[in-house]
Write a structure and sequence with these properties.
Elements: E1 10-16, H1 23-33, H2 51-56, E2 63-70, E3 76-83, H3 91-99, E4 103-109, H4 116-127, E5 131-137, H5 146-157, E6 165-166, H6 175-185, E7 198-207, E8 211-220, E9 223-224, E10 228-231, E11 236-239, E12 242-246, E13 250-253, E14 255-256, E15 261-265, E16 279-282, E17 301-307, H7 313-326, E18 331-337, E19 341-348, H8 351-365, E20 369-371, E21 378-382, E22 387-390, E23 402-417, H9 421-430, E24 434-441, E25 444-452, H10 453-457, H11 460-467, E26 473-484, E27 486-493, E28 496-497, E29 503-506, H12 507-524, E30 532-538, E31 541-548, H13 564-584, H14 591-598
Parallel strand pairs: 1-3, 1-4, 4-5, 5-6
Antiparallel strand pairs: 2-3, 7-8, 7-16, 8-15, 9-14, 10-11, 10-16, 12-13, 12-15, 17-19, 17-20, 18-19, 21-22, 21-23, 23-25, 23-26, 24-25, 27-28, 27-29, 27-30, 30-31
Helix pairs in contact: 7-8, 12-14
Length: 604
């Protein structure tokens, strides 16, 4: 495969949609129709190759695949397809995929219609100057209503849906019509084969045999085996070992030309050398200036991760480095805690992102971790005129030195069927929300709210789904920082503060939160031989308390008859022993209790 395709026959496109609207299944059908895999090699969600993705039924990583399609005009086109995630926590993954394509297939479920994440993703595609083909999926379902969904696309998004392609990703209806639309309606990429090499580093991951594997999109010139290349951002030089494409199988090729996507390896062992969004150019004839790359991601939620066994700290550092390579939206830095030892303060795009990273560290790197309570970034202003960003509630200055604290607020878009509107309005009010707008699209309501991010971080999404029985959809972006009446709430177990459970809460919510947390911990901490007091405190004031009774041995069992003083003596002796034990005894809080206590929701 030494030939590169003429640039006018290449089409680079992403598949964008809300969660569960059928992106990965549609990608399966396109791969099957173009002969990317034989029938015996096909399986459902073939591009979701991570065990976690298949288990949860969601796409976490954007995947690319090259397909060959012969159109009705007899021309053979090269399609570079990118399947993207739908969940709001992986929006950075979507934005990077869109930056390396010229067109998008906007997939909308024929039964559900336009949802919050559909809007967010399509606006990103429009910002990137994409040509958009609306695709109405699941038309074979009995409740499908294609005309209603076309109207929704026009009313809510404002793009023409008269020539939307109705398809079924599951049964393959109209897939040929969609392939023809991709060939005729999407624009070819721009690029100059004779110019100096310029390529965008879209993604990278670590392979234990090949080192770092890099996914590239060639803009100008060529990339070929044996070529000396330069990473402009990292300022390092390498020689390409191999050049390849995904069909979705790995296929080695001789060269990647302008407009094409593929992967390269260059014996890179140091994961610091490959930064997502970097520009790759020729060492001998470099390009004048680098590509603009990607906007860095802004973490929304922070939590600390500590190894349960402190000797695994270096292993955790290495594992986070390998995950960062594969997930550019993960941020981390080392920190230490009095109770938990050395660990890392990590920044995530949301709670699901945090959960996925923790699970990947457990599965892929076999690490046993203790996570702390998730928190957001506050801006703290002290009385001596200093200001700093607060990532960890433990670092909060003393109340007497605090002038004010500002917290992040988000603008949330919630789309819901009419019958669940009352419950969702109540939920937003409980979480200190401010309504901006309420509009209707048919029988669906579109709510816009300003909400404090720390009220959303814990369990807002779960509550939203349970109130609406899974029908409401939710998307958000950071809006502003505002001053709030915030306090630091400590959790004490036997008068000892537990760093991992400290949190910043609004004063009006503090008592309810504290009581809930104490009640939950009472259920989760195993009983000891002595009584355990669990308290929530703000400064020196205790706002909630629960006691765990001691396990009791019947020391009077061997007394038969005799004077009561014999029994009293044994009981007093036991009491003295327990008092001593409480002085020296440590309460071991199991790791599962930390995670379960933080998922405290409003289940009751």
């Amino acid at each position: 495969m030494s030939e590169t395709k003429p640039i006018n026959l290449i089409r680079n496109f992403a598949i964008i949609a809300h969660i569960d609207h059928g992106k990965s299944t549609l990608a399966d059908r396109l791969i099957q129709s173009c002969g990317g895999l034989e029938a015996r090699e096909m399986k459902e969600q073939v591009l979701d190759n991570m065990e976690l993705e298949r288990e949860r039924g969601i796409t976490i990583k954007a995947q690319t695949v090259r397909l060959s399609y012969t159109a009705k005009d007899g021309q053979t086109y090269q399609f570079n397809l990118m399947d993207t995630p739908g969940h709001v926590d992986f929006a950075y993954e979507v934005s990077r995929s869109l930056a390396s394509c010229e067109g998008s297939l906007l997939v909308v479920d024929a039964t559900q219609g336009v949802e919050a994440q559909t809007l967010a993703n399509v606006y990103q595609a429009i910002d990137n100057g994409h040509e958009i083909i609306p695709v109405i999926n699941k038309i074979d379902l009995p409740s499908a209503d294609v005309e209603r969904v076309k109207l929704q696309i026009e009313d809510v998004i404002g793009i023409d849906a008269s020539d939307a392609v109705p398809v079924s990703g599951k049964s393959g209806i109209n897939i040929d019509q969609l392939l023809e639309a991709i060939a005729t309606r999407l624009p070819p990429p721009k690029g100059d084969a004779s110019a100096t090499t310029k390529a965008l580093l879209v993604d990278s991951w670590y392979d234990s045999y090949l080192g770092v594997v890099i996914l590239v999109r060639v803009i100008d010139g060529y990339l070929k085996k044996g070529q000396k290349i330069r990473f402009m951002g990292a300022a390092t030089t390498r020689e390409i070992d191999r050049v390849g494409i995904f069909t979705p199988k790995h296929v080695i090729v001789d060269v990647l030309g302008p407009g094409e996507m593929g992967f390269i390896t260059a014996s890179i062992k140091d994961i610091q050398d490959t930064k997502v969004g970097d520009t790759i150019t020729d060492e001998r004839n470099p390009c004048a200036e680098p590509l603009s790359g990607f906007k860095p991601s802004v973490p929304m939620v922070f939590c600390s991760l500590f190894p349960a066994d402190s000797s695994e700290f270096e292993k955790l550092r290495e594992s986070l480095g390998k995950l960062k390579l594969n997930d550019a939206s993960l941020h981390y830095e080392a920190e230490s805690s009095q109770a938990l030892g050395m660990g890392f303060r990590c920044g995530f795009l949301g709670l699901l992102h945090m959960e996925i990273i923790q699970e990947r560290l457990d599965r892929e790197f076999d690490l046993d971790l203790i996570p702390t309570a998730p928190s957001v970034v506050y801006k703290v202003y002290t009385t001596n005129g200093e200001s700093k960003e607060l990532y960890n509630p433990v670092d909060m200055p003393d109340a007497s030195r605090l002038e004010k604290i500002e917290e992040p607020w988000i603008k949330a878009t919630i789309m819901t069927p009419d019958e669940y509107l009352g419950g969702l309005l109540q939920l937003c009010q409980e979480r200190r929300g401010e309504q901006i707008n309420l509009t209707y699209v048919g029988s669906r309501a579109m709510l816009e709210y300003l909400l404090p991010l720390n009220e959303v971080v814990f369990d807002f999404y779960d509550r939203l789904k349970s109130i609406s029985r899974g029908y409401a959809s939710f998307d958000y972006q950071l809006a502003e920082y505002r001053e709030g009446n915030l306090v630091k709430m400590d959790v004490l177990v036997n008068q000892e503060p537990v760093d991992a459970l400290a949190m910043v809460v609004h004063r009006s919510q503090a008592e309810r939160r504290g009581r809930q947390l104490c009640e939950r911990l009472k259920e989760l901490i195993p009983r000891q031989m002595f009584k355990i007091a669990i308290q929530a405190a703000i400064g020196g004031k205790i706002i909630a308390r629960e006691d765990i009774g001691a396990l009791r041995k019947d020391v009077t069992a061997k007394c038969y008859g005799g004077d009561i003083t014999r029994k009293r003596k044994l009981l007093d002796k036991q009491k003295e022993g327990k008092k001593k034990m409480r002085q020296y005894g440590n309460v071991d809080i199991p790791q599962s209790a930390f995670i379960a206590a933080l998922r405290m929701g409003d289940e009751n």
